[in-house]
Structures are given as structure tokens and as C-alpha cells.
Amino acid sequence: MEKIIEESKQGETLVLENKKENTKKLFIESYGCAMNFSDSEIVASILSENGFNTTQTLEEADLVLVNTCSIRDKAEQTIRKRLEKYNAVKRTNPKMKVGVLGCMAERLKSQFLEEEKIVDLVVGPDAYKDLPNLLAEVEEGRDAINVILSKEETYGDIAPVRLNSNGVSAFVSITRGCDNMCTFCVVPFTRGRERSREPQSILKEIQDLWNNGFKEITLLGQNVDSYLWYGGGLKKDFENASEIQKATAVSFDQLLETVANTFPKMRIRFSTSNPQDMHEEVLHVIAKYPNICKHIHLPVQSGSNRILTKMNRLHTREEYMRLIDKINTIIPGCAITQDLIAGFPTETEQDHQDTLSLMEYVKYDFGYMYAYSERPGTLAGRKMEDDVPEATKLRRLQEIVDLQRVHSGIRTEAFLGKTVEVLIEKSSKKSPNDWAGRNSQNIMVVFPKENYAVGEFVNVTITNCTSGTLIGKAVGYSEMN
Questions:
Q1: Quick one: 224 and 366 in the same domain?
Q2: Residues 6+ apart with CB under 8 A from 423
Q3: Is 182 known to sit in a ligand binding site?
Q4: Which residue, 177, 175, 202, 181, is CA-closest to 259?
Q5: Does 33 count as an annotated binding residue?
Q6: Residue 84 contacts by C-beta under 8 Å, 6 or more apart in sequence?
Q7: Residue 178 assigned as binding residue
Q8: Where is each Radical SAM core domain found (predicted)?
Q9: 293 labelled ligand-binding
């Protein structure tokens, strides 16, 4: 946890192996959540089949795409600054076309074409297969837009191109959309209703990754615990499914167990979970299989029951704490991480103290913490006054961050003298003589390279730590190799 507060992931320029027959160049950047980065791989795959190779040089691109995040105002402001940069480049390369993808495209729709004169096309998260048609529209001199949300699209038939990959870990999307209408969140409006991907297509994608040397996957969704495949579409329609469909339905715990059984040497993670939807069966599957990582990201957002109600979080503080107790009982040593919002409308000092006391109860390994940012279109944005002064928000946020730093230190210190299994991912940022990789609990571990290599599982004895990093020495290969 080198950075405890994270408003949005930094823009990442994505590159794939080029095809000799392709003549056009694509520059694509992604911001925000892991789902956006996964979606960019789908986009690159679609465009690779339509004549585009990717480039890391903005100035030489024929097409520039930015995959956007709307979760907070700061993320949107970052995108607008990038569009200004594209505009400056486009003045010297008038043939360049620029498109906006993702949640911000879905939220602002045609407003983007009107406001940002640089933008030639706007494409929502469910319309990426229409990109070739939209580009044809642009080539004929017309603005192009498709932000129609789908009830079926999961891109299960698209083989993502692994962009800028370390060749070790990859995302595998299993659900899209969200049915949990949290009052602060734009996701249901920008990504639509929740639907699950057909299990066999998931297993095929993982098999392809295994065949290509990948050692770790993250099963990805806005709410993975709600995964439910029954041969139908939206989860909300399951009650109308046939008896055969219901009898053969696949839930998340069943999918997780199938993946763990089918790929015993593949390390498995998943994200993100919603407390109200996490069932005990999932915990038992995690405990049963050594290749499933002992880490659960479990956003709580607030420790106050009053604020949880205003957020439309369908769990109480007490229910959340009971779930934490179950995790600690069933999966000893499991890392638990959080999302927390400081300064939600009407939040009082007592509400804030309730959040701090919940943190003391759980002692999270790490987390993502934010000051509340009003999002247009959400229920909170429409119905609730953003009445907590900015200075108060920032002070409360800092108190949350400071406490999290203490708890993170406690959690990393608990590994001193212990031996952990690490999957080597890359060279350490601080030293070319050290490897860096994560343990099962998703904590970064740094140790001398010696004769080990990227993609190998190594046992490392921990000798030192910071609040976000474990430092140690390798003592041999693990059984996962």
C-alpha cells in the first residue's frame, strides 16, 4: 500500500503485439477502475481486427481513445485535461480522430460532442462492438455516438488482447453492470443492469491465459458476489426462469470453486464484493483451495448506520461486523480491505466517530479513502444537499487515512519472521537488484533477485516491513510452480 488515498488510477497507455497487415495506429489510455482497463483490452482486440496497431506515441496516432471514469469529479477533471492535450496535438495532425469511451461517455453522451470540439466519437461501455461502424461514420465527416446500454452484452465472445501485460497476471470479467442503487454511485447509470457471463466462456479465457504462461487471474465485476448464470440475461429476471434453469444455475461460489479445481496451479483473486451479497459459501470455498488468495476487498463506505441508510447500503454496521467475524473464523489470516467516504451529506462528528470505531474493530489491511464528491444524476446528487464543509471533509478524511496507516503497519508487522508465498511480477521500483510480487493477502513483497525469474512462485521469509511493503529473502520455490 504505497499510496493509501487513490482518487483514480493514473492513465495507462496500453500496447499490444502489432499485426504486420495493419496500417493504422491506435493510442488508447485508461483511467479509473480495473473494469475500465479490462474493457480497453476488449476495445484493442476489436480494433486490431479492423486495421489498427497500437502505439505509445500520441503524435503518430490515427485514432486516440480515452477510457474514462465518472466515479468522482476529480477523475472527470483529469479526463478534460487529457482532452486539452489531445487538442493541442490534433492541431498539428488534423487527420487524427479522438474518441471518448466508458462511464464518462455514457454519463455526458452528446454533451461531449457539443462541449469538446475535439471529440469525434462517443462510445458507452456496452457499445464497443459498434466501434468499426462509428469510425466509418467519422471518416465520412459525421460525429458518431452510441451510448445505448445493453441488457445482454458481456463481451464473452471477444478474446481480450492483453495490453502492456507483465505476462503474469490478468483480469477476467465475469459480470457487468450493477443493480445496487447506492445513492452516491453513478455505476448503475453508466454501466446498466447487472448481468453475468456464461461460465464456459470464462473457463475458456482462463485456459487461454494458462496456455500463454499467465499465473494469476482476477475475476472481475462491479459486484462479483452477485454472479448468477442461468442461461438467461438480467439477474432480476431469475425468478421467472424455468425450473431447469434454476436447477442448473451457477452462483459465484460454484464458479469460484470450478475455476480453482480446473486450474490448481493458477492463483485466483476476485473483486469487488458487496457486503450484502457475500454469502458464507464463498468463504468456505476460499478456505478450501490454496490457490484462491486470502484477500477480500469489502467496501463499507461508512461505519454509521444512519449514513449507511442514506447511502442505500443494504447492510447495517452490525451485519458488516458479523461478516468480518465470519471471515476471520473461516479464513484465518485473510486480508480485508475497504472503501470509505468521508463527509457524505448530513454526516455528523458522531457518524465520523462511528466510522473510526468500525476501523478499529476491523483493522483493515489497506483501503481506498475519499472525500465525498457529488455526482450529477445520482439520488444523493439530486436529493441531498452537499452540506459538509470541504475543510471538514478533508480533516475527517485525513483522520481516516492516519488511522488506516496505523492499522496497515500492524498488519504488515504481523508477517515479520513468517514465510509467505510470492508470485514474482516485476523488478522493484526502488532497486533493479530486487524482485517485487504480491503474497496471497495482496501485499507487495520485495526481495533480492538471485536466480529467480518473473512468473515464478517463491517462498520468502519476511525480515522487515513498512506500512505497505514486506521485505525479505527468498528461501526456495513454492509448491505452486
A1: yes
A2: 168, 169, 215, 216, 267, 437, 438, 455, 456, 457, 480
A3: yes
A4: 202
A5: yes
A6: none
A7: yes
A8: 164-411
A9: no
Based on the fold, state whether residues 351 and 395 are members of the same structural domain.
yes
Cell numbers for 466, please give them: 513498512
Distance CA 438, CA 268 (A): 12
3-42: burial string, b at 16+ Cβ within 10 Å, e else: ebeebbeebbbbbbeeeeebeebbbbbbbbbbbbbbbbbb
pTM higher than the cut 0.85: yes
Q: Which residues of 276-312 are buried (b: 16+ CB within 10 A; e: fewer)?
A: bbbeeebbebbbebebbbbbbbbbbbbbbbebbebbe
Cα 452 to its chain centre, rounded Å, is: 29
Domain assignment of residue 162, yes or no:
no
The ranges of the chain with pLDDT < 50 are 1-10, 13-16
- Whether 47 and 26 have beta carbons less than 8 Å apart is answered as yes
The answer to whether residues 112 and 255 belong to one domain is no
Co-location of 18 and 119 in the same domain: yes
- In this structure, the answer to whether residues 181 and 305 fall within a common structural domain is yes
pLDDT in tens, 13-42: 444 456 777 889 999 999 888 888 899 999
- CA–CA dist 36, 219 (Å, integer): 14
pLDDT of the residue at 3: 32
The letter for the amino acid at 436 is A
In-domain check, residue 7: no
434 shares a domain with 358? no
Domain range for residue 80?
12-146
Instruction: Indicate whether 196 and 277 sit together in one domain.
Output: yes
The rounded distance, in Å, linking the Cα atoms of 58 and 27 is: 6
Whether residue 283 is found in the same domain as residue 208: yes
291/287 Cα distance (integer angstroms): 10
C-alpha cell at 135: 469510425
Domain tally, the chain: 3
Final residue of a structural domain among 131, 146, 161:
146
Q: Is residue 156 part of a domain?
A: no
In a domain, 6, yes or no: no
